[in-house]
Specification:
By secondary structure, the chain is of the alpha+beta class. The protein has one domain. It is built from two helices and two strands; from the N terminus they run ββαα. A two-stranded antiparallel ribbon has the order 1-2. The longest helix has 9 residues.
């Protein structure tokens, strides 16, 4: 909603940064680090629990309303 900011926001002062993005079981993960291990390696043993959780919908996709935001120094989120 650019009109909400009037003349007080200069987008040139707030450049967007490209993120590395990967998907696992329909969930999207992003990281600022280019030199990080692949997501599936990072998830390690947690993959089996994610797989189990995502299969609980009896063939129907699980939907989680809303959004989650994190501040972090690096790695996959």
């Amino acid at each position: 909603h650019p009109e909400s900011y009037g003349d007080c926001l200069d987008k040139g002062e707030l450049p967007l940064v490209s993120l590395r993005v990967e998907e696992y079981q329909g969930m999207v993960f992003a990281t600022f680090k280019d030199d990080i291990e692949p997501l599936v390696d990072f998830l390690g043993p947690a993959k089996k629990w994610i797989d189990l959780f995502m299969k609980q919908g009896a063939g129907y996709p699980i939907k989680v309303p809303g959004e989650h935001r994190f501040r972090f120094p690096g790695n996959w989120k």
